[in-house]
Amino acid sequence: xxxxxxxxxxxxxxxxxxxxxxxxxxxxxxxxxxxxxxxxxxxxxxxxxxxxxxxxxxxxxxxxxxxxxxxxxxxxxxxxxxxxxxxxxxxxxxxxxxxxxxxxxxxxxxxxxxxxxxxxxxxxxxxxxxxxxxxxxxxxxxxxxxxxxxxxxxxxxxxxxxxxxxxxxxxxxxxxxxxxxxxxxxxxxxxxxxxxxxxxxxxxxxxxxxxxxxxxxxxxxxxxxxxxxxxxxxxxxxxxxxxxxxxxxxxxxxxxxxxxxxxxxxxxxxxxxxxxxxxxxxxxxxxxxxxxxxxxxxxxxxxxxxxxxxxxxxxxx
Length: 317
Fold this sequence. Notes:
By secondary structure, the chain is mainly α. It has helices at residues 2-33, 35-48, 66-69, 75-90, 104-112, 115-118, 121-164, 169-178, 180-195, 198-201, 220-238, 250-257, 263-284, 287-316. The chain has one domain (2-54, 62-307). The protein contains 14 helices and no strands. α1 crosses α9 (180-195) and α2 packs across α4 (75-90).
């Protein structure tokens, strides 16, 4: 039983390691593509645009690029949002997402200073009304959209990572069940991880407070430092001895590259797809889940091991 439990712990350690890799890649992607600011731009354009009588029907709405979703905004909304971006930069900040942390009153004051708004009293009154009515809803919609898109990004990055590293959960568990050296290396890595404080291992995604009077911008140097840290995390996981199971063996590569559409090839493909999909689902649970899982299971293992040792001592005595 203890060996089976160790194989489960080692497999969970691999799932956590892959989750950390996916988390790091996602953070790098968010910074490079400025995703959060683009999602805020989309919601602001929707807030300031005149309502359409009929929204065009879209299939697979969640998969459309944010630039395509923003294309239907009218000129007035584009002018206001463009000037908001300029205003944010004039405050010494860089990203439009920081507006999420402003209160309604603060955001209204910023809007009233924009050239496109301050030219006419009617426009000021209209913007005040829009901000009072829709800004809290816009922030909620932004957070919801951003959360859903990040889950989608996480799943897609996870699937790509699993295939590139050939992280077949069925084969990984089988290898851990038979190879004690690799299994013990993975368990040792898991021990080191769960022994560290959660905040030093995990990067929790926290929603910004609804009302916040001060915001802090990240400089380009801080962004570069963050990206370097994420790359270091990826490298440390991939190079860990317990992750030697993540590899394409020569025989597996040959099986995929030869005998296409034969029964053996199709059987191998189906087995691999099941294994990859299973690991992708495990990775999609996220590093915080696997951190807690490993901590709980390893505590149970130590307790079980202690009871077994006490039993043996009593029987020996």
